[in-house]
Design goal:
254 residues; alpha/beta; Alpha-Beta Plaits; 2 domains; 4-stranded antiparallel sheet; 3-stranded parallel sheet; 14% strand; globular
């Protein structure tokens, strides 16, 4: 018997009007639109439909990708299809946490608001960048990152596939790693259009701050198993808050 899993997208997948077609097609989602607007303190529909670049700012991007993903998930549930497990890439893990049943809608929206604000603060303080490298084995990229770190901290942040990875860190280190990757035969090595050095230790303060917030929140039982970024394994619920703290500043292993 075939099993169905859902994988939710992360930061960088945003686009103008994302998710609004679901709200227009499924009126029951308007309540979530109103709740999100109240929690986040801005008109979510206004930002989702904007073309002035605000949608690319971390403090807007993160909660709105989560919101749009929840719109899509709630609409999908109307098909009455059984889902065996969920996962999410980077930010998408928060959509998966909601889909797993661990958090209520208002809880996950408040959590992502805090997370996005903490990460936005880190991006202002540290001015980090990220880059995609194609065509090199992860072992080679790890070695490159160690060499490039003499110029500025840089780490392998996303193990996307055997031949496609993302590095993250201080600007000088990442630029040096791009140079070394090309010298080592990378098919492509390019900067990504993101606002900070996500999944690196430049986000440590955000991880610490997030843990201080979430440790007081009571979560539900896990209904649908969720595969976590930091382990690529099903979550052990007793480790939930530690995994959420770690995820901001650690590599994504799938």
């Amino acid at each position: 018997m075939n099993k169905l899993a859902i994988v939710f997208a992360g930061q960088g997948s945003q686009y103008t009007n994302m998710g609004l077609d679901f709200v227009d097609a499924y009126p029951f989602l308007k309540e979530k639109e109103h709740i999100a607007t109240s929690i986040l303190g801005f008109d979510v529909r206004n930002i989702l439909s904007s073309t002035d670049g605000r949608l690319n700012e971390t403090n807007y991007t993160q909660p709105l990708i989560l919101l749009a993903s929840i719109y899509a998930y709630e609409a999908f549930k109307k098909l009455d299809v059984q889902v065996s497990s969920v996962a999410g890439f980077s930010l998408g893990e928060y959509s998966a946490l909601y889909a797993s049943g661990l958090f209520e809608f208002d809880q996950i929206m408040k959590i992502i608001q805090v997370r996005s604000q903490l990460m936005q603060k880190c991006t202002v303080e540290n001015h980090g960048v990220m880059a995609a490298i194609l065509g090199l084995d992860s072992d080679v990229i790890e070695t490159i990152c160690k060499k490039a770190s003499l110029f500025g901290k840089v780490v392998l942040a996303n193990y996307n596939s055997p031949v496609q990875s993302v590095i993250s860190g201080e600007e000088k280190g990442v630029h040096k790693a791009i140079e070394l990757a090309k010298e080592n035969g990378a098919k492509r090595a390019v900067l990504l259009n993101v606002s900070g050095a996500f999944h690196s230790n430049l986000m440590k303060n955000a991880g610490d701050g997030l843990y201080e917030y979430i440790k007081h929140i009571k979560h539900n039982d896990m209904i649908t198993p969720i595969y976590m970024n930091t382990t690529a394994n099903i979550l052990k619920v007793e480790n939930l808050y530690q995994e959420m703290e770690k995820q901001i500043q650690s590599p994504v292993y799938f």
